[in-house]
Design brief:
The complex is a heterodimer of chains A (281) and B (350). Chain A has 281 residues and is an all-alpha fold. Chain A contains twelve helices and no strands. Classes of the chains: A mainly alpha (281), B alpha+beta (350).
Chain lengths: 281, 350
């Protein structure tokens, strides 16, 4: 099958590829090179490693970013996986309605949604007022790591759900019935069939949640107050904030990129092993 | 309950989406028997199979296995295995791993697993395909893997849901013989679902003809073919001439305006009946010698025989004959008493 799909490289296809090559150069390669250039130079343009070595000063922020993003990703997976399964097993019209309900909040502006959470979680917010009526609280909810995780899960859950849902609709019910027929209980069907077959969806979902979550700055600023600074906020400060230092900002961006690549490659390694060992019940 | 029945169904009623798909099925399946559910699509044959497999819950009625009620036993605890219509192989596993799945679940030790899978691959003719991926197999090969995957667990009963439906004619014929051979050599009860009457007649010890959620007739292939209970069964089980007739008395029937001797009795005098005559049972004779006469309308060569349509006595007669007659010629037709099948009108029964 693969051999048949070989694309013949002729002059025509290369000409047709040119706009894309140009696009990639202008909008991907050049900006990346610029970031790298700024990261390794001073504001006067002289070569230096100071910026990169200074990133170490911010390691608590780096660790917090990765930690909060990882927690959010895991919560998204735990919430999204069963939900995606339930939706994928529903009948046609119900399936469409449920996907619609998931997508609906995404049509509203991202900032607005996060503001809404602020008013809910505030000291004098709706939740605390309701708790007060019951004689409880007030609880400190806003400006905590929990609020940041909540904001991330709320905003990024659809990005976990949709790839999982789309891969699960491809898993035929009879495949699961066949496993049951061969004596597998629900746990064995999950580990032996469902998990390995949905692994590509898990990988995509985790990537699509973890990457934006680790570099977000709006959620942490609005729901985390000043106390929950993340890498995204740090980079933002270097470019648009008081700490104006694009060279340092570029260096942090570069380090963040390396961290993301590392995290994803570790995860993918783990994922592919899982896939192979899936059958070991 | 019948003696030595491995599976029996008692008054099974199933509703699906507000529609009654099984209307009280009673059936006993004997040990080591090859039983086929035969019927048009939507007759409830697959639902009956899924009742036995445990994938469908009955609204009313009981399922017994070896005399024990198993209504509430989930599919993974039933001593039956299924070959699914579209095979339902595990796409992420290779041939060996697919067959191994059930054995692993049942914690069969590794060396035992190996030898059982090897034997099974030999049985279905796939030795050497162990590491092949499912996507690299043809339809027929996937079919064999599905059968091996089910049989390797040594089920007491194997359920097969139209397993040969997706195969071409030649392969289907081969697999029919193969399945029958496997069933006999392994001494397993096979419950087989098909809409192909020829397949049912070729392979089965017993055929269960179904329509609209009811069992119309149960019997050996010969019984079903030679003594269909009504015109529907007769027509479904093979091509037939179905005529309006009247029983003049016991052993005497009138149809197509002619009185014939027959072998049926027990009908009321002048009761209206369906008369079923198989195309191969009409003998073509010279016009002067025929009790019936007709003009040949068309003739088609079918290999072993010719198929003719003959116009006469207000009917179009379907005839299978080894003799060819030119369209337009007049012929005579005779029917032996034994070949005239008298049936109560289907509409009278309801």
């Amino acid at each position: 099958m693969k051999n048949e799909a070989v694309i013949r490289r002729s002059g025509a296809t290369q000409v047709l590829a040119l706009p894309y090559v140009a696009w990639m150069c202008i909008f991907i390669i050049v900006p990346l090179a610029l970031v790298a250039y700024f990261a390794f130079t001073t504001s006067e343009g002289a070569w230096t490693l100071d910026n990169v070595s200074r990133v170490g000063e911010f390691s608590p922020i780096l660790i917090r970013s990765v930690w909060l993003a990882a927690v959010s990703t895991v919560i998204c997976l735990v919430v999204g996986y069963p939900l995606a399964y339930i939706i994928s097993r529903a009948t046609g019209s119900r399936q469409r309605t449920m996907v619609m309900l998931i997508m609906l909040p995404m049509w509203m502006n991202f900032l607005l949604r996060t503001y809404a959470w602020m008013t809910l979680l505030e000291k004098n917010g709706i939740i605390n007022r309701l708790l007060g009526m019951a004689g409880l609280g007030p609880l400190q909810m806003i400006n905590t790591p929990g609020a940041v995780v909540l904001g991330m899960v709320y905003n990024y859950l659809p990005f976990m759900l949709l790839p999982l849902y789309s891969i699960m609709t491809k898993i035929d019910n009879t495949t699961l019935e066949a496993a049951q027929d061969l004596g597998a209980n629900w746990r064995q069907i999950f580990t032996g069939i469902l998990l390995p077959l949905s692994a590509p969806g898990i990988k995509t979902g985790v990537t699509m949640v973890f990457v934006p979550a680790v570099s977000t700055f709006i959620i942490s600023r609005m729901l985390g107050g000043g106390g929950q600074l993340l890498i995204g906020d740090l980079i933002d400060l270097q470019f648009l904030g008081n700490a104006y230092n694009p060279n340092l900002g570029s260096a942090i961006s570069l380090v963040l990129m390396v961290i993301i690549l590392l995290c994803m490659s570790i995860f993918n390694q783990f994922g592919s092993e899982e896939e192979m060992e899936g059958i070991l019940l | 309950m019948e003696e030595n029945a491995i599976i029996s169904l008692k008054g099974i009623v199933v509703d699906y989406g507000g529609e009654r798909v099984l209307k009280g099925i009673d059936l006993a399946i004997h040990d080591k028997e090859f039983v086929t559910f035969l019927g048009p699509s939507g007759c409830g044959k697959t639902t009956t199979l899924r009742i036995i497999g445990g994938f469908v819950d009955a609204l009313e009625g009981d399922v017994f296995f070896d005399g024990k009620r198993i209504n509430d036993v989930p599919p993974h605890k039933r001593p039956v295995n299924t070959v699914f219509q579209k095979y339902a192989l595990f796409p992420h596993l290779n041939v060996y791993e697919n067959i191994e799945f059930g054995l692993k679940i049942h914690k069969v030790p590794e060396p035992d697993r190996k030898s059982r899978i090897r034997d099974m691959l030999a049985l279905v003719g796939l030795t050497g395909y162990e590491t092949r991926h499912i996507t690299q197999l043809s339809g027929g090969q996937q079919q064999r893997v599905a059968i091996a995957r089910a049989l390797v667990n040594h089920p007491r009963v194997l359920l097969l849901d139209e397993p040969l439906g997706a195969l071409d004619l030649k392969l289907r014929k081969e697999m029919q013989i193969e399945l029958k051979r496997i069933q006999q050599s392994m001494e397993i009860t096979f419950v087989y679902v098909t809409h192909d009457q020829e397949e049912a007649l070729t392979m089965s010890d017993r055929v269960v003809v179904m329509k609209d959620g009811n069992i119309l007739q149960t019997g050996t292939p010969e019984d079903i073919y030679n003594e269909p209970v009504n015109a529907f069964v007769a027509d479904f089980i093979g091509e037939s001439n179905i005529l309006d007739g009247i029983m003049r008395s016991d052993f005497v029937a009138e149809f197509a305006g002619v009185v014939f001797d027959c072998v049926d009795k027990g009908f009321g005098q002048n009761q209206r009946v369906d008369v079923v005559i198989r195309p191969e049972d009409i003998k073509v004779v010279p016009p002067s010698e025929g009790k019936l006469r007709g003009i040949v309308e068309s003739i088609t060569f079918k290999g072993v025989h010719y198929e003719m349509t003959v116009e006469g006595h207000g009917y179009k007669w379907l005839i299978h004959s080894t003799l060819a007659e030119e369209p337009g010629t007049e012929i005579g037709m005779n029917i032996l008493p034994n070949d005239i099948h008298i049936m109560r009108r289907t509409e009278d029964e309801q």
